[in-house]
Amino acid sequence: MRRCARAVASVLGCAITGFACSPSSSLPGGTNGPDAAGVDAAPDARSMPPLPDPPGDRTLDYVLRIVRVGAEEPAPGSRVAVGLDVDGHVTAREDDPVGCGHVDFVAPDRYGATPGVDNRLGPLLQQVENIGATLDADAEIASNIETGTLLMLVRILHVADGEALRDDGRVTVRVYLGVMADGGAPALEPVAHDGETLLSLRPGQRFDVAPHSVEGNDLERARYEWSGEIRDGRLRTAPSTLHLEIPIRDAGTLVLDVRDARIEADVADETLTLGVLGGYLVVDEIVDNVRNRLRIPAVEGITEETLRRSLVEPEADIDLTDRFGCEGLTMGFAVEGVSATIEGVADAP
Fold first, then answer.
1. Count of CB atoms within 10 A of residue 201's CB?
2. In the predicted structure, residue 23 carries a pLDDT above the cut 60
3. What's 60's DSSP letter?
């Protein structure tokens, strides 16, 4: 049973090619929300005083050239991972009911070494790699970016003039799926990231928005939008529901809905750095999608109950209702972006 669970787990690392979000914070309070008793979480936008909204109406456009699974293990047993404090609580002990027996991670030093990082998707994929699986999730995602099949455009609107990249109490963040404006392949350059040299997107390129990213062929009617702020130069968004479509080669598409999805990143005119995309998934929806939407031989003949108990529930770390056990599994991705020009909406295929 354990071997089957590991085989199924490998599908979760394939490249992301689409997502959508709508304003919707769904993590309840009580024993597992921002007011949970226990170790206090590190301050974030939810617990900080409001910022002023200075005058100005600049728009900043980027394309994400780094999207990596937010897990790092420089040594066996490391408690370091990229992610967000999804539940507003630092779980420091396995007997803490908040966290469902999973001690939280600590962010890497370059992210401030903050405690309370929730990311159980990272350990699940790390386990798949540790047992010798051929799948390299980060390589899959990078390949899709290099070939132009995964072009995620980020637009930050209503950015004030002057020092607003340090503090701005009201911005809007839109994410579009993009295509190259000239119809060709993206230009690439070597990129240093996390001690590696990668080949990824060159800054300053021109893109069109995929038609399904907007309504009515109108860039102002984006399907994927967050409200947010810039505080001390770091963008933080409010929670949303994030829709992920993950193609599995020769096996269909895995569709996941991420709750309380948030984006954070250091913002400059030309770059988004130290970015994080995090939230949580509902266990039953993960199991249903893996079991019923995919054509994977390892899944055939395995019941949903077996998949739930052997694959997903052991990594679940959020008790959504305080009644039925742990029904949520946190996730996180490290993201970075460079300047881009968004020209318009591409013609429908």
1. 23
2. no
3. E
